[in-house]
Amino acid sequence: MVSATSRHWAIIPAAGAGSRVGSITPKQYLPINDTTVIEASLYCFLKHPEIAGVVVALHEGDQHWATLSVAKNEKIHTVVGGKSRADSVNNAVEYLINTPADDTDFVLVHDAARPCLRYSDLELLISTLKTDEVGGVLASPVSDTLKLVKSKEQTVNTVSETLDRDKIWRAFTPQMFRLKLLKQALTHSKDKSIVITDEASAIEAINLQVKLVQGHSDNIKITHQEDLELAEVILKNQWR
Ligand code: CTP
Ligand code: MG
Fold first, then answer.
1. Residue 74: pLDDT over 90
2. Per DSSP, what are the bridge partners of residue 195?
3. Is 81 in the pocket of ligand 1 (CB under 6 A)?
4. 72 C-alpha to ligand 2 centroid (Å)
């Protein structure tokens, strides 16, 4: 049985270029209402008393982070990110392993491009998984009808079949796992050249059980320009 008093750390991968948004400034540094995307994404972690520290992974040529007032926050540490999101997370995990973080401490990985996380969802994730031996992620069941396409075309695609959506969930971040298991999983994926787009996939690949905790579907990731406009509206209607 694992301890229920493990500490919690956050990792914020913020080393991406944001190419699909198409702005010169990486999307995590774009303004959103009266703040920036990354500051809005950090907000809940800096506020939560159970988060012992936050590790932000930055691009090696980052010119923006140091200009933000949040850069001076004592809870935050920075590392240089890598070529892929997984590499950036791995560098931050290494940093935690080399500090007083314990093997059974939890790590919550949250995209710098996900500014609309609700504080109540963060609390729900932490409290639900507190005694879990592995961990899990915030997620939400899909509500649209899902179509499988025959092949991936640019604009018009042909349907192959309609999928049974009953068991399909969308995985968000934060993704919360025990430090040692996350390190093991990321190393395994790297060694086997398994391409992962989230931490849960790496955990699944070493045959561990990932729990899904239902969060709100407005925890969107800014991927394209229009997502930024939507995130502004979501944040305006959130009590923070
Ligand atoms: N990320 C990272 N290191 C990378 C690539 C991505 O830390 N080498 C981070 C991004 O900064 C973002 C999160 O991972 O916060 C999710 O990735 P994604 O949405 O794909 O962001 P980008 O890679 O920046 O965008 P794009 O793929 O459109 O270039
Ligand atoms: Mg990317």
1. yes
2. none
3. yes
4. 27
In one-letter notation, the amino acid at residue 6 is: S
Nearest residue (by CA) to ligand 1, atom 10, is 16
Asked whether the beta carbons of 177 and 201 are under 8 A apart, the reply is no
Report the candidate in 129, 96, 92, 106 with the shortest Cα–Cα distance to residue 178: 106
Instruction: Give tens-digit pLDDT for 96-153.
Output: 999 878 999 999 999 999 999 999 999 999 999 999 999 999 999 999 999 999 988 8
Check pLDDT > 70 for residue 3: no
CA distance 177 to 138: 12
**Ligand 1 proximity of 19 Cβ (cutoff 6 Å):** yes
115: preceding bond cis by omega (within 30 degrees): no
| Mutation to probe ligand 1, out of 79, 85, 219 (largest number of atoms < 8 A from CB) | 85
List the chain domain ranges: 8-237
Question: pLDDT band at residue 2, thresholds of 50, 70 and 90?
Answer: low
Say which amino acid occupies 80. V
For ligand 2, the distance from its centroid to the CA atom of residue 197, given in whole angstroms, is 9
63 secondary structure, DSSP code: -
Q: Three-class SS string for 71-130?
A: HHCCCEEEEECCCCHHHHHHHHHHHHHCCCCCCCCEEEECCCCCCCCCHHHHHHHHHHHC
Architecture of domain 8-237: Alpha-Beta Complex (3.90)
